[in-house]
Specification:
Elements (H helix, E strand, L loop, with lengths): L8 H4 L13 H11 L3 E5 L5 E6 H14 L6 H4 L13 H7 L7 E6 L2 E7 H13 L1
Antiparallel strand pairs: 1-2, 3-4
Helix pairs in contact: 2-3, 5-6
Pfam family, one: CBS
Protein name: CBS domain-containing protein
Organism: Halomonas llamarensis
């Protein structure tokens, strides 16, 4: 029996995704990003509403600075981006692939009715495109 060819973000997104609250320390965030091998993480409120995004690149300088200055790393809320590019679960994989060609994020939060329902990465899209190509 052949597997259904992926067509929408819903078919390939990670539902149980790493996310952080605005009160998470940058040090804890950095450890989580390293553990999960992610280029960034969505920031959500207590009801899982997407309120921001913070990338590995955003964190790198802060972690380095806290090492040099032996200081306390800031909280996610102090550094997160409030303007977040997100997608819906119904978005076409090929449409999102087109959007990801430029200097766009490597990871997109997947949002349904303002709630975070998953994430999709460039790697997820690439794997899906290879599956589509084989058919």
């Amino acid at each position: 029996m052949s597997q259904k060819q992926p067509d929408t973000v819903r078919d390939i997104m990670s539902r149980d995704c790493y996310r952080v609250s605005p009160e998470t320390s940058i040090t804890n965030l950095a450890q989580g990003l390293a553990l999960h091998r992610l280029p960034g993480a969505p920031v959500v409120d207590s009801t899982d509403r997407l309120i921001g995004f913070i990338s590995e690149q955003d964190v790198l300088g802060q972690v380095l600075d806290s090492i040099y200055n032996d200081g306390e790393a800031p909280l996610v809320r102090e550094m997160m981006r409030n303007e977040v590019l997100s997608v819906t679960p119904n978005k076409s994989i090929t449409d999102l692939a087109q959007e990801m060609l430029g200097a766009k994020p490597k990871i997109y939060p997947v949002v349904e009715q303002t709630r975070l329902v998953g994430i999709v990465t460039r790697r997820d899209i690439l794997i899906a495109l290879l599956k589509i190509r084989r058919h």
